[in-house]
Amino acid sequence: MQLRQSNTVPGSWPVVLLCAWLLAMLAVPSWGQDQTTSGSVRQQLDQARVVSYTEHWQDAQAILDELGPQLDAFELPEFVDFHLLEARHLVLADRSLEALERATMLLERPLKDDQRLRVLQFMANTGVLLRDYETAFDSLLNALQIEPRVDDPVAGISTYNMAAYMFGKVGEHERAMQYGQEAISRALTAGETNEECVARQRVAPVYKWADQPEQSETQYRRGIAACSKIGNQLFVGVLQHGLADLLRAQGRLEEARKLAIASIGVLQDSVYPLGEHEARLVLAETLYDLGAITPEVRAGFTAVADYFRTMGLWDQTARMDRLLARIAEDRGELRRALDHYRRHLDAREQFLDRDRAMRLAYLEIEFDTRLKDRQIDLLEESARVAHVEATTANQQRRLRSIILLLSIFVALLLAILLINAFRGRRYFRQLSRHDTLSGLANQGWFLERAASLLEEATRQGASAYLVMADVDHFKRINDEFGHLSGDQVLGQVARRLREAFGAPALIGRVGGEEFAVLIIADHIAPAIDGIETFQQQPAGSSRADDPAVTLSFGISRYRQGENLEMLRKRADEALYQAKREGRNRYVISPEARDDRDHP
């Protein structure tokens, strides 16, 4: 995907656009109108929908709670409407995984095409929010297949909106803009200003990603006008800070500042914390560009950064840490600036890992779709041959032989295609999880797997130890022996770590020359044994000219209730102490030292 060279991390705020669109996706005016259903239930559902989009979703949920005891008696249209609206509220309450499970349950029902389309639209949106890109793309492609069978052209607008966003994210800009313009065209034809509001919000960032800022600004401003016309202040706020971000990148700082401030007020009133913090990030970057960072303004930055880090929004976290690094550098606080730059790089790497995961999921789904199309073609050909056999009695014997051979060929071809598909899927998964230079887990996969292992250790009452390791004087090795030798050193260190710690340990490369080892054990001894085994190994290769390689280590122990970042921070502090004390040694953090004395 082609990206502009600007002061923003690529794709840094589309998540908030997606979230905001999801808030309104269910507002499609296609609620079922079954005459056999109680008019009171329908009226209450319609009332809940209006309250959810024009007031506060908590008030709408109170109406749904009153309807809950009657749920078993609902007709299918009302049953679907109830659960989709409640799933929307689960997303707003940061319970997106439950919302996805609710939608999956609905797909098991005998839904009509228009109902199934709405459920798939919701699942595609929620899948992106959860970074479950396989679910997202699979749901989107199924929705695009169903859409032509739905009579109401307005019902397909949400599908095209989602397609515009997702294809834009994976770099298919032309395809994305075509879907976005189709959504806008349908909304204008139907006179649906609400749908126009949403559609313009979807396509505006696509033009920005495609480096077409003028078209992007036009869509943002028209979207703000359409959303203001129908009183959808939530979308007005989202579009305002999206436009502010675009104008800031163009150097139109005063316009960007006013729009960002207005957006914050609107999103606060709409009780949408994610959007509010995104707008505050845009305002912070704009004030920095204006040279207007005061101590009072700077005091609020920590809360914004903590929110993004807690929510796992690594693109926004990277932007915030980079801004804090620049501010610290301007003030001469070089140590703090260096710390923020390191956090920026770590967060950016995690964001890029997720971006790569989305692209790989898209490639896998596209591959599977093409495979299915080939299977269908082969089956159709088999059916045609069978028809020829039935209608040409004089050639039955010959046709039977042909059919047998063709069937064998089809079976072999399908088997080959399936084998290639499975191999391709394994390759993509391996590529997205492992560092190509060392063969160890990359940072994204290490952190994801480590979090799961810590949860499992907590359930089993086991202890966990994190070892952080850093190659001593690695910059000197690169400078004196060359970067090729440096790469060979990293590969050699990875091999030695695997031999020293063994298969049960989770080992990853989490930085340039930084490694991490997570060990689930009842005592610290395996961690220390692994380090000492590593230190006893030869420190260089058999060639006399190669550099001797040593590592400094820091060890910390997991404490109940903390997260992985806290555990890593203590291990990093112990690692820095080992560096300060002369390198080629290990230091145990205070909370783990008793384990060394009492096995």
Oligomer: single chain
SSE order: HHHHHHHHHHHHHHHHHHHHEHHEEHEHEH
Distance between the termini: 54 Å
If you consult CATH, what is the topology of the domain at 443-597? Answer: Alpha-Beta Plaits
- The largest beta-sheet arranges its strands as 2-3-1-4-5
Helix % is over 70%
Look at the structure and name the CATH superfamily of the domain at 443-597. Answer: Reverse transcriptase/Diguanylate cyclase domain
How many helices? The count is 25
Which whole number gives the mean pLDDT? 81
Structural class estimated from helices and strands = mainly alpha
What is the rounded Rg?
A: 28 Å
Strand residues, percent: 5-15%
**Secondary-structure arrangement, i.e. CATH architecture of the domain at 443-597:** 2-Layer Sandwich
Taking the sheet with the most strands, its summary is: 5 strands, mixed
> In the CATH hierarchy, what is the class of the domain at 443-597?
Alpha Beta
